[in-house]
Amino acid sequence: MIVKGVRKHMGRWKEIERISAPAIIPKYGPLTGMRVLMTGSIVAAPFASSILAEYGAEVIHVERPNMGDPYRAQAPVIERGDKRVSAGWIQEGRNKLSLTLEINFKIPESKEIFLSLIKNCDVWVENMVWTEKLGITEKMLLEINPKLVIAHISGFGRPQFGGVPSECDRPSYDPIGQAEGGYMYLNGFPEPSPPSHAATFINDYLTAMFTVNGILMAYTHAQKTGQGQAIDIAQIEAMSKCLNDTFVQYFQLGKVRERKGNKVAIFQPGNVFKTKDEKYLNIGAFGAAVYYRFIKALDLDPKVYTYEAAGCSAEAINSELGLELDRIATEWVAAREAEEALQHLLSLKVPSGIVRTSADLAASEHYQKRGNFIEYKDETIGETVKAFGFCPKMSETPAQVWRGAPILGQDTDVILKTLLGYTPGEISSFREIGVI
Prior knowledge:
By secondary structure, the protein is an alpha/beta fold. The protein has two domains: 7-241 and 372-432, Crotonobetainyl-coa:carnitine coa-transferase, domain 1 (Rossmann fold, 3-Layer(aba) Sandwich), CATH 3.40.50; 270-359, 2-Layer Sandwich (formyl-coa transferase, domain 3), CATH 3.30.1540.10. It has helices at residues 44-54, 87-92, 108-120, 138-144, 165-168, 174-180, 183-186, 202-225, 235-240, 246-253, 288-297, 307-310, 314-317, 320-334, 338-347, 358-362, 365-369, 412-418, 424-432, and strands at 35-39, 58-63, 77-80, 83-86, 97-100, 123-126, 149-154, 229-234, 270-274, 280-284, 352-354, 373-377, 384-388. A six-stranded parallel sheet has the order 5-2-1-6-7-8, sandwiched between helices. Strands 9-10-11 form a three-stranded antiparallel sheet, with helices on one face. α1 (44-54) crosses α8. It is elongated. Mean pLDDT is 95; it is low at 1-5.
């Protein structure tokens, strides 16, 4: 069904003028003035846009009508009567505007709205992969908005940036990226223990941070030169980039790096030790000066347990003396409660830390005085919630939460009216045909 009065305006996106940002949200943070269109779901693309939104960018999260981002329903879920929302959505969905739109250029109304939004935005973030199949190309968008920054997020990268096309077309989630990017092979304990994936979607979060980095670089270039561009962020490469010297070891030394568990392979102490009160303490002492402070903390003879003989290399820590030192350290920690051991080590400036739980951090005076936990109203359940705050902290242009995570489509009408100039009647017509 096509409603009269809608399609006759097709093509007016060509006359759309950019409305300065922010037009809907408050002004705050270093990124005020930037507007971001985000057509992504789950974690990487939404988290990248969340970071931008926390620092002042006006972010429009495009979601499918009547469905929304699957992240909204991901367990664990907070329930209040008939209202349900994911804990993850509460944390990561805040500060964004929710617009429902069925993105498909075969639908003229969809094309009209999408291209009008592109003209109004500085950045488009997507993890849809199949954009060309929907009729969307980089060439088209950069002709419409020459300063546009296009951020592609995928598991294996976009073929126009290189790679095997069939590999680029592979589906992916966080653990797949950890596995295929080489990270999972190094995470965990040696064989026969299997490789282990890191919890909390660390691949998605790293991918998101590389995305933010790329966006800010490309945006800076566009503001200086008027030239937009596309950037390509692959989950596998985000993981590979964080593998330290793994590839240099392979190419220059012919060594395949292996899993080592919690123990650092090239110096000691560098391990997680169990305490008397059933907690865990991580001790790290890189370099001779710190090493000898550790030896003093354990009341050992530095002339016997020299850095060269017991602490400075893989050969040293696996020598008879090095293994003896590890045993002594294990026994020393096991005889003490975590806090006692920590304070003694810190008194001698030996880097150490107790392995903390979320409950520990929630009760931490340091975290509280750092302002790491903030409260705001979640739009779905209509209650004040408490969540983690911001990183990094900024002295002059701090981040803020101006609103909790939105209800699906909460801002559709105001976006279409304020940015694109549609009337209430036109918006109703779009809704009737299922475009929004």
